[in-house]
Fold each of these.
Amino acid sequence: MVTGRYTSDLSEGDELGPVEYTMSRFVAREYAHANEMHQPCFQGVDGQIAPPTLVHIDKLRLYKLACPGGAGPSARIHYEFDATIHEPIRVGTRIVSRGRVVGRYAKKGREYVVTAIEMRAADDGRLLVEYRDTVILSYRQAAGAAS
């Protein structure tokens, strides 16, 4: 486990979480507003739901819990993600999120970490979102390249 270390110390097999919280109207609306998602379903109309990409915040919550030292010696770069939304996350839903580092590898001088995250309803365990996230931890420039 990486507790007390940096996100750059994450290793394949590390477990992140769980984190439990209730999706609030404020968080759903403000996240949608910040991402210019002005559809009524995100802005507080009856039946308000969280924007699907809000799963990014759960990744940060899991990192903060497991790696309170922060990013480490170099900032991570969000490289790519894939999310499968099994059902909308309604405001007021109690959520449990867990993550697992499923890969860490180097390719062309870059170091990658792949994390799989699941968001589930706390009341009955039904799967709401599956999320696979890849970050780049470091990049070594070729000899003689400008920095």
Amino acid sequence: MTSQADAPMPRSNTRRNLLIFAPLAVAGAAGVGFYAMLQGIRDGSFNPRGIPSALIGRPAPQFSLPPLESSGLPALSSADLAVAGGPVVVNFWASWCLPCLVEHPHLMALHQRGVPVFGINYRDGADDAQRFLTRHGNPFNRLGVDANARASIDWGVYGVPETYILDREGIVRWRWAGPITPELMRSDVDPLLAQLGA
């Protein structure tokens, strides 16, 4: 005769016990990931921008954005990206973004060299965006306003600034999350634009 303590546990109790331990397993996995990130920071192998874009080698997502009316620039849609006659730069930016101010002179330099630079203003106020461009210069050939961030989500944007380079067919060839710096211009941007025929 078996005692009640020796009887098998009902299935519903087993499931309940598993659900109790599930948050602990998730927390443990997160802890392991955080520890790996700290180790990468310590030994220099961690790259916060190392998350690859799923768009590399693919056409840009379909989108159509209204213009920043006060800028006088035309609106921006995906159809505009493949008709520029050469490689184009697509830059997601906002007036409240300090790193956007850091990279702005490099966008101005690209524009002055004749490279088409298309801007997507991310979750910004129209007056603030216009003040930024008036104060620092306007590097954009076209400028779309992504007030609700729908286009940004389709592009896989993590935050601003974020920059993409597309070839003359509108295929995404390069992505950078973060500000463009002089080093990045020399190591990545200029060589790729030259290779693509800019």
Amino acid sequence: MPSSKKADTPRAGKPGARGAPRAAAQARPARPRATSRRTAARPARIVRAKPESLRLRSIAASFTVADLERSLFFYTKALGFIVHQRWETDGKLDGVTLRAGTCELNLSQDDWSHGRDRLKGVGMRLWLETVQDLDRLAERAEGYGASITEWPADRPWGVRSFSLDDLDGYHLSFYRPL
């Protein structure tokens, strides 16, 4: 039986380690190696395209808005985003990072360098997946000034969805799989 006394080396007590009792290494029977069905079914090697295709872990959108304080109120109260980060210059709010679950949306104050009549949200739409009650979410958003463009309905492609335009005209579609 091995001694309970520890050796002076940091790896003491591990079988086969310097300073470990030899009897412990010799007394332990070899374990049979486990086999895995997953290993047997795995292809020999994955061949990637050259150059490699893009593999993302997440994506975040950024909107330039006409009135940052107003948009911040809308996104937090009407849609339920939370403020993750605020960017200020000399006490003036320049932008925010909002979060909903693991997703992020950045809002920044328009500096009007492209003119005050610049259209926002033209030609783009964000699709946002949730498991929440879409009817309630649509009613809540409308109560805070969102323009609901499609009310919640089951769609033929297997989702329930609704769409809205935010205060600056950005198009958002919320959906959940059926």
